[in-house]
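Human:
If only I could read C-alpha cells as easily as an amino acid sequence. I am handing you a single protein, as its sequence and its fold in C-alpha cell form. I hope you can help me see how the letters and the C-alpha cells relate. Thank you; the sequence and its C-alpha cells follow:
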Amino acid sequence: MLLHSFSLPKMRKPNRKTLILMVAWPLLAGFTGTALLLFGLRATPLPEDSLSDPTEIEAADGTRIASWSWTANTERHVPLSEIPKALQEATLAVEDAHFYHHRAFSLPSLGRALLVDIKSGHVVEGGSTITQQLAKNLFLSQQRTLSRKIREALYAIQLEMHESKDTILNQYLNVIYYGHGAYGVDAAAETYFGKPVEELNLAESAMIAGLPRGPAIFSPIEHPAAAKERQRIVLDRMVACHYITWQQANAAFNQPLHYATHHIPLHQAPYFTTTVMEELAHRYHLSSDELYRGGTKVMTTLDPLLQQAAERAIRSTLPANSSLQAALVALDPQTGAIRAMVGGRSYMTSPYNRVFAERQPGSTFKPLLYTTALEQHWSPARQINSELTTFVAGIGANALYTVHDYGDFYAGRPLTLREALARSDNIYAVSTNLAVNPSQVVATAHRMGITTHLGSVPSLALGVYPTSPLQMATAYATLANGGKRVEPYAVEEVRSATQNEDIHANPTAKQVISPQVAFQMADLMRSVMQPGGTGYSVSHYLNGPVAAKTGTTDTDAWMVGFTPNLVCAVWVGYDDNRPLNLMESHLASPIWAKFMSTAQLHMPYSWYSPPSGLITRQIDPLSGKLATDKCGRTETDYFQPGTEPVESCPLHPHPQTPVQKLTRGLLPWLRHWFGG
C-alpha cells in the first residue's frame, strides 16, 4: 500500500525586532498593569467600617437576641505599648515570623506552614500573614470563595500601604478571635485568666497566642491537653525566632496556669441562647467558633414577650438573698418549639441550665400514671378509699409498702379519679399503679417523652425517679396536642456562609396515645385549679381554663400544665438538694401561674372539644354513680364506652312512687322462684 507523503509548511524565522517585541511587550504590560493596580490601591482609602457579617441569633419575631462579631465583642482597644512584649513575640513567632520583613505576603511562611501541616496530618500553622488575617477579619465575610481570597489579598496590600507595621499588629491583636466569645487580647486575658492583658506572663501569653489558629481545638477550658501541646509549639517557635531561651521556654511550659471561672454574659435569654448554640453544634454541626467568626444567621423559636414574662415571674417570686433556684421552660405542644427558657436565677452567677437538671418530679408524674390507667379503660368514676394504707408488693422483708399523703391528711372516704387528681391523693395513685402494672406506666411515660430511667416499683406513682423540666414539658405536650409525641427544639432556620443551602427545622409528631385519652386527662387536670385542688390558691392569676398538676417532694417543688397552644414546666429547689421549708415548697405554683397569665393574654385560645368516641355523664363524686336531682355536688366526666356508670347515686335517690315500691318488693320474690 502506497502512503502519500506530506510536510508542514515551513515557518519563517522571526527577525530580531520581532523577538524583542514578543518578550518585551508582555513584561511591559505586566509591569504597567501592576503599577496601575498598586497606584489604584494606594489612592483608594480603606473601608471605614468592618464589612464582616456578624453572626446573629434572632427570636421568632425577628428580634435580635444575640450578635457576635469583633466589633460587637471587643472589650477595649489596648495600645501596643500596653500589650506584653511576650504576647507580641509569641504571636509573631507562631503566626508570622517574617511580619516586619514582608509586604503583605510571606512565601517562606507559606512554605514552612505547608510542610508542618503535611507532617502533622492536620492544620497546625497557616500560611496567611498577620496582615492577611487582619484584612479578612476587618473587611470580609467567612465565605470560602476565590473572589473572597482575591479581595483579601488586595485589602492586605492596601493595609501595608496605608498603615505602619506596628499599627497593623496592634489592630490584629485587638480584633482577632480567641474563642469563647473573646475578640482581642484583652477579652482573651479576662476570659481565660480573669486579668487584664497587661498582667499576662510568658506562660499565659504563649497559651493565648496559640488560640487564633483553632480556638475550639486549643481551648484550655475544653481541651486542656491539646492547649498544652499548642503552648509547647508556641514556645518552641519563640526559641527558634530567638525571642527566648530554651530555659525560659521550659520554665514557662512547666508553670501552673490558673484559669478564670467566671462566664461571659450573653445578650438576652442567655440560657436559651446557650441551648441554641449546643443545638447548632449537635444537630447542625456548626461549632461555637464558626458562629463567633460571623456570617451566620440563626432564626430561633423564642417568643421575646414570653421570655420576659418567664424571667419576671421567677424574679418576682423567689426570695432575695437566697440560693434557691428555679427553672422554667415553655413549649408549643403542636411542634415542640421552645418559646421561653430560664435555667436559673442568674446566668452570670451560675450558667448551669436547670431545665435539663434531673430532679424528682413528685406528683407531677401522676398524669402519666393515670394516662396508663385510662388506656386500660379505667373509669374516671372508679373510687378508692383515701386512708393510711400498707400495700403488699412482693415477697420478703421489703414486701410491705406504707403510703402517706402529704402532711398525713386523708379524705377518709372513697375518691373518684378526678378528686384524687385534684387533691393529689397518694393512696389512689399507688393503688392505680399496682392495678395497671408499674411496667406499663414506665412504657407510657417513655412513649410520652420521659427518657430517664424509671423503675417498675410501687413508689413510681409518686414521682421518685428523677427527670428534667424539659422532659416533663414534653410529656405534658403529648396530652396537650391530642396524644402526639413531639421533640423540643430551639433552632428554626440556619443561614450560614459556610453552608451551600439554608437549613430548616423539620418538627415531627408521632401519635403515641389516643385523642380520647389525651382529652380525658386534659379535662380531669382542670380540677387541680378548682376549689379543693392543689393549684387553686394561684388560680386568681389566670385568665382562662388550664390543665395542670402540682408536685412536691422534700427537696423539689413543681408545677406543670398547659393550654391548647402552650405547655409550661416550672421547678424550684436548691442545687445541693437541701430540704425546702414550707414557704419554699409552694413557690413553683405562683411562678407558673404568673407566666401562664401573660401567655393566655398573648396567645388566645379556645378550650378543647371532646373527640368522638367518648360518652358524657354527670356523676355524684361521693358515690361515683349517676347523679340525681337530689345530689348536692356533681361533676361532669367523659368516659370510654363501657366504663361509664349505669346506676343512680344511692346516697341521694329519687322519692319512690307506690308502683316503684311494689316493684322493688316483688323483685326478690320473683328472683327466688323464677331465677335471674
